[in-house]
Write a structure and sequence with these properties.
Helix content of chain A: under 10%
CATH superfamily of one domain in chain A: Cupredoxins -  blue copper proteins
Radius of gyration of chain A: 27 Å
CATH topology of one domain in chain A: Immunoglobulin-like
Strand order of the largest sheet of chain A: 8-9-10-11-16-15
Largest sheet of chain A: 6 strands, mixed
Function (chains A, B): Nitrous-oxide reductase is part of a bacterial respiratory system which is activated under anaerobic conditions in the presence of nitrate or nitrous oxide.
Mean pLDDT of chain A: 90
EC number (chains A, B): 1.7.2.4
Oligomer: homodimer
Structural class of chain A: mainly beta
Enzyme class (chains A, B): oxidoreductase
GO molecular function (chains A, B): calcium ion binding; copper ion binding; cytochrome-c oxidase activity; nitrous-oxide reductase activity
Distance between the termini of chain A: 87 Å
CATH class of one domain in chain A: Mainly Beta
Largest interface: A-B, 167 and 167 residues
Keywords (chains A, B): Calcium, Copper, Metal-binding, Oxidoreductase, Periplasm, Signal
CATH architecture of one domain in chain A: Sandwich
Number of helices of chain A: 5
Low-confidence stretches of chain A: 1-66
Chain lengths: 634, 634
């Protein structure tokens, strides 16, 4: 089937495009750069790979139909920030869309020397206090919202490897808090409760004994999974809910009531074949106000320092009248779940079943049997995983096994019989095996409806061979033209292993150019304030840095001294960074304008060490260095 | 002045381009993708920013002059690999040119979890044995050559922070050797002696006491710098040469005799102002066969286990008849040096002087006073740093202070008066403050002459704001059309801090798709060969991995056991990777097809830990996990 918005009569020679009658003209919704003149409308089903950026060599002045201009000429800015997770690289990456250029890397769960992350006392203590691990496994970067729209405050991301959640400060594009979530292993999903990001949820995938201290080792039935509600301001775990089965992905509804989580192991199994044995598993709907009420009423057990509320099926909180978790039977080993922009539906994909399940959020509150809230179950293709939205009534779902993205009509799926393929509008091949996909502002109440990125796990031979470890392939697809259909625009190789992303309009984030010293505790060391304080084998060196010098041309300490260096970059000019790198001492402090960092180390090897600036800061950058002189102990 | 190749008479409506009469037609040298029809030849001096990839909206079928097609449509491959250093990120990055897409990251001097680098026993021992540092500062990636052309064997890169040199195996695109260079601090330059990469040279920038063990701390005159000659096969430091002054960049000549190194501190100073006080410093020319002869004759002192030859000006090796190091006076604080493709000249840039010095390599061997080998000294602009070549007689030099790349005619510079600006052909603005630049195969005897990358240290506001730490900007410039002039094609944001790059034709590197188990010592564990061997508190777990399982569904050990896990990915299919991630144990082994890795750890916390695969390998990837059960000690 096709819905009316995909089949308007249209003059093919017309340069303006109208997506239909019931929505604002599409032309107002496409990227601000010139959208090229579309000629004859192309068939919608095929991939129009290979057409982007090619210069027109036709003589008629009309480019081929379906071509899209995704170029961002030198010096021009992208329309969107995309925040991609970095998987087991432990980082977040910031891309520009539509250029797909990587603008920045933000280390989160591991040390990173170019940014000095984990090299100064503050960030190394943060990493130590959250477990002391050297890496993490980031999956789901979500950006904070207010009133269901991006507010530019924070991004959050999980660590599946070590059960943690991190917060990234979008004023400075740096990780500023990490919480080690008690009672949870394999924290997989990460997402916000809307409209105002009241909580960030960590979703536990791996069922383990609770507490996991050596008890119940071989009794899988006693293992548990939890969701954890984290306060985004304090990064404190406010409460957890313990459930039957396990969970992986989640999404919050937009009116503040529901949090949804899929799970593939309702079997409580410990092997792959047993985990996949039943034909349905659960989509769990957490009734947040009911949980808060239970916590308020003391209906919890404190485990690992956190109130844990019983959300199993046998739980009789509220006398069973208003279960705090509703278990919805959906097919099979559901993976992705996301709430539609209008907050009407939660859509969970089958993974091992070709269908997605459409749950009516309003009905969910009213029905006795939560399965009665399933109002649609379209058949989409093999291996449906994750779903994004364009704000025009379409859903876009990745088909992992088919290596496709399928576009389908949500209302048509509600109207159609279960397992009907009629709601499918079109499919496009992607290369290859997509996991997540993300459309511009898909997680908000008002998606932009222009760009979509398919995060494909395999690239095979799409790029120059770089050895046995291939890049993944994040493909940019234009979805702004329902008439021409989805258009593959760019292949983007990406380092292992982005799982998910959020795309945010450029004007909704306002990063700082220089640091505000008021934001941090370190002592600002201004020009003329450099100082060395010695006391009992402790040496505190305070020095400024600027083009092209550090506050001291030499610093002399004794072998065995514990040395603290507090260093400020006193520059006021944006983009003039310095660092303090100390050879053979494993130290590199990154110092952006007006930033102060502090590092403590033991000077244990006599000798001369040239402390230097590792950011190329001026023509005399190489000469910007000072001697650390470590005198031998007597 | 302009040389004849830049001013041929040409019909501006002609679509074929001829660069002149003395070289093969330029059209044969441009990228294999369609080069768009150039209309009227544009003026050469301006930056033609903003024209790339834009679809033609003119009705005459002719695009604007100077447009270049640098797009690589989805699924098509780039023409070149570019190996960029990652500065104090400690890594190497592989880009495709002309797409400027990052194809891969290769961790070198620091652990990196996505690749499991530094997480298995072999690579973590390599990092430990080369100093145990967690980071490095990579500057100069150079690719091995045979007969003055890339041979696809290795790349090499320095660590300025800790005085090391690393080798990257281009069969697997992974670091396979690191040597800690004795007697050297601030190893800056890294480059190969041609034609056949007999040595890789590490160039010491920071003058320090030798040995640096607490002696001579405050006697800078006694400090020394060295160059180190490293055997590329064994990565053994064969010999070093100790010099007056310091050094930073270097380049080897193509007939195997000379190695050139610049230096900015002939003053032997310790402060920036003193280092910059004299109007000339030295370009040093190391006579490699003469040094080898001195080593052979025992004319060295062994320091730090390495033969160190005296290359100071007072050295009387060979009775002064044939000095092993020639000190050439060039202006001022010279930074970059590179040898022309025809091996006729070494060109050193002034950094604090607008001129470059052109040294005739043949004359250098003949003259008594090495300054007599300076045959040209063109005035290029403010802050000349590094020079690349197109193989058509032009040099391209970055002007750090002017934020430009200047194209100049080498022979014209030899013919002109010193400090003449006449050899300058044109300048193009770059954004901003370029350090290195690199042209395709510029380091070989036969550069490709099409693409050039300017590695600009600052991007200021060229990209969406990502906070106080901005990306750098690696700009792609088309240099294949002498008539149209240099054309700025792409801005590429890059993470801190690429210093230098090598660009290699795609067909000269042939990476493997899967591992050859013969290449490594680890024991291959095939299907059916999983095994657990226990002895005296040591547990050796051997297991295969494949879609979607590990060799064991559970592994039980005792608290306190030392556990070694040897894990093989038995897949034969390219691009199907697995990993072994162990929560709360800080372990992640990357396992490409047919790869075996081994990790040893102590199981010190009782509990259940779900070992899982962190590479999304199949629809049942999430279910690919096994329990590590750590039983409490009695």
């Amino acid at each position: 089937m096709t819905d009316e918005s995909t089949s308007p009569t249209q003059d093919s020679s017309e340069s303006e495009i109208d997506a239909g009658t019931e929505r604002e003209p599409l032309f107002d919704r496409i990227p601000r750069r010139d959208f090229m003149k579309a000629g004859a409308a192309a068939g919608a089903m095929g991939s129009l790979a290979g057409c982007t950026g090619l210069l027109n060599d036709q003589d008629d002045g009309l480019a081929a139909a379906g071509d899209v201009d995704a170029s961002v000429p030198p010096g021009e800015h992208d329309d969107y920030y995309a925040f991609l997770s970095g998987g087991h690289s432990g980082e977040i990456r910031v891309y520009g869309v539509p250029s797909m250029r990587q603008l920045m890397r933000i280390p989160v769960f591991g040390r990173e020397s170019a940014r000095g992350y984990g090299y100064d006392d503050r960030t190394s203590e943060m990493l130590d206090e959250s477990g002391g691990y050297s890496w993490g496994d980031t999956h789901h970067p979500r950006v904070s919202q207010t009133d269901n729209d991006y507010d530019g405050r924070w991004a959050f991301v999980n660590d599946k490897a070590n059960g943690r959640m991190a917060r990234i400060n979008l004023k400075y594009f740096e990780t500023d808090a990490i919480v080690d979530i008690p009672n949870q292993q394999g924290t997989h999903g990460a997402c916000c409760l809307l409209p105002d990001t009241k909580y960030v949820f960590g979703v536990g995938e791996f069922r383990v004994p609770m507490p996991n201290d050596g008890q119940d080792l071989t009794d899988p039935d006693s293992y548990t999974s939890t969701i954890a509600a984290i306060d985004p301001e304090t990064m404190n775990v406010e409460w957890e809910v313990l459930v039957d089965g396990n969970m992986d992905n989640g999404d919050g509804s937009k009116e503040g009531r529901w949090f949804f989580a899929t799970g593939y192991n309702s079997e409580h199994a410990t092997t792959e074949s047993e985990m996949s044995s039943t034909d349905t598993d659960w989509l769990k709907a957490f009734d947040v106000p009911a949980i808060e009420e239970a916590v308020e009423n003391g209906q919890y057990e404190e485990i690992g320092g956190v109130p844990v509320v019983d959300g199993t099926r046998d739980s009789d909180l509220n006398g069973g009248d208003r279960p705090i978790v509703r278990y919805i039977d959906v097919a099979k080993s559901p993976h992705g779940v996301s709430v539609t922009p209008d907050n009407q539906y939660a859509i969970a994909s089958g993974k091992l079943d070709p269908t997605a399940s459409v749950i009516d959020i309003e009905q969910l509150a009213e029905v006795d049997d939560p399965n009665d809230a399933i109002v649609g179950r379209p058949s989409l293709g093999m291996g449906p995983l994750h779903t994004a939205y364009d704000g025009r009534g379409h859903a876009y779902t990745t088909l992992f096994i088919d290596s496709q993205v399928v576009k389908w009509d949500i209302e048509a799926a509600v109207e159609a019989e279960a397992q009907s393929e009629d709601p499918v509008v079109e499919k496009i091949d992607v290369h290859y095996n997509p996991g997540h996909l993300i459309a511009a502002e898909s997680y908000t109440a008002d998606p932009q409806g222009d760009w979509l990125i398919s995060l494909n796990k395999l690239s095979k031979d799409r790029f120059l061979n770089v050895g046995p470890m291939k890049p993944e392939n994040d493909q940019l697809i234009y979805i702004g033209d329902d008439e021409a259909g989805m258009q593959l625009v760019k292949d983007t190789p990406s380092y292992a292993e982005p799982h998910d992303a959020s795309i945010v309009s450029a004007d909704k984030i306002e990063p700082a150019d220089i640091y505000d010293p008021e934001d941090y505790d370190e002592e600002f060391v201004d020009h003329g304030e450099s100082d060395i304080v010695r006391e009992d084998g402790q040496v505190h060196v305070k020095m400024y840095s600027t083009r092209n010098e550090f506050g001291f041309q030499e610093v002399t300490v004794q072998e065995g001294d514990e040395v603290t260096m507090t260093v400020t970059n006193i520059e006021q000019t944006p983009d003039i960074l310095h660092s303090l790198a100390i050879p053979e001492h494993d130290i590199n402090l990154k110092l952006a304008p007006q930033e102060t960092r502090e590092v403590t180390f033991t000077a244990d090897e006599p000798g001369v060490y040239w402390m230097y600036c590792a950011f190329f800061c001026s023509a005399l950058h190489l000469e910007m260095r000072s001697r650390l002189i470590v005198e031998p102990a007597e």
